[in-house]
Amino acid sequence: MSKSKARGLFAVATLALSLFAASVHAQTYTDLYNFGQASGDPLNPQYSGIVAQGRDGNLYSTSPNGGTGGFGTVFKMTAQGAVTVLYSFDGTHGKTPCGGLTLGTDGNFYGTTSTGGSANLGVVFQITPAGSLTVLHNFASGDGYSPFAPPIQGADGNFYGTTIFGGASAYGTVYKMTPAGALTVLHSFDLANGRNPYGPLVQGNDGSFYGMAFGGVGANVYGMVFKVSGAGKFTILHPFALTDGANPYAGLVLGKDGNFYGTTFNGGSVGYGVVFKITPAGTLTVLHSFTPGTDGGSPYAGLVQGTDGNFYGAGYLGGSKVHGTLFRIKPAGTFSTLFNFDGTSGSDPLVTLVQHTTGILYGDTNTGGTHSTGTFYSLKASLTPYAALLPTSGKVGKSIGILGQGFNGAKGVSFNGTAATFKISADTFLTATVPTGATTGVVTVTFASGSLKSKQNFRVTPTIKTFTPTSGPVGTPVTITGVSLKQASKVAFGGVKATTFTVNSDTQVTATVPTGAKTGKITITTPGGTATSPTVFTVTQ
Q: Which end of the chain has the least Cβ crowding within 10 Å, N or C?
């Protein structure tokens, strides 16, 4: 269906359904910049187009068009709307960067181009905040090609991403890449288990990576939600059935409750896509089915969870002015339209919103604006400022980066109430060391008056060091020593759950070998993850 025809259908339906649609809430929308007003500008930002906040408080992303050669750009945008092109792609170093950027723990940004490079199949690149770009990997058909999303950095420091084509069966891949650029294919899509994963991955609390494929064949013809481990074990969690969604372009977002939230472009009760929740085990709940009305529809963009706990997103089409919408949806499914694009303020938002640490939402549109080549905008939705963590998990002693503002006046940092040592690098960035005794929970930066809190928990990773005795029959008490064991919720021997255990301290747990226990490693699970013993406990008769 053509865009003009689709807009026409939306316009008719909007008139018919306007009395029943969610009302527009008073929000402050600001058109910060109209792309195309300067020579070499970024043009037409598209999915996934991830916008990343840098250590300096500025926003960074890519555009598939524009730049000095017309092959796309990496650009920086201040919160006030001043744009700077950091890099214009030249083909040799990639071209048509659709994905946007990921901020790495080293302070640099990582992204992909969908074409260009040595084989013209796309690249993975690193770029500094000053604009120095390094190609880390040139894709070849065997390891995938045409990535439409940036890689994300896993808890292990490696990068994980997707390509929409290539691999063993030519339908796309999930890959792992070291910071130096050594790439390993973790999974090749083959139609039967999906095809064309357009969106980025997200790492779950269990350490696995979660994503979505656009389509497939048979039961997976409408796409699916999948999980893949860092070792490449692939699991289909939920195949879309059209009525509960179809053809996702975006990635998932990990909610504070440990579930995942996302959107699909098609499907639902009317066929204009859905917002859904899915558990790590694969139970999916449709929270909202878009209609051809004032709620918009056909979202390419994913969701961001705000500091109020609600999710914010963008509808590509529809709205009262038929150029797309910005919306809010509560975890229970209550839906509100916040803003209606009108063409002048922008049109066709394809990119997932980002919440800046000031609390303000930012995004861009693919078209519309003064030059019909897109806009960069802000939306003030009464959301509180917060501290952003990079990474969001780690062991005691690990250095964690924290993004925010006003840090020159910081008086303290704590991990779920346990004080940490910290070092201020800039007013918008500091580092803190995970302290001994820290538990999984909110990180707080305190000032003379007030504080900034993280909007997600920092998960303190547990460790098992030793245990004694090293063998014994069922009923044997075993003393386990380690680090960050205070929040232990489960102990297992060879995969069999212990029915009796006692948390003695943050460094010691005593557990009784359970009936049915098998010779194998001991594991302890906390909200921060699962620790595995370095050696095997032997179950004797």
A: C
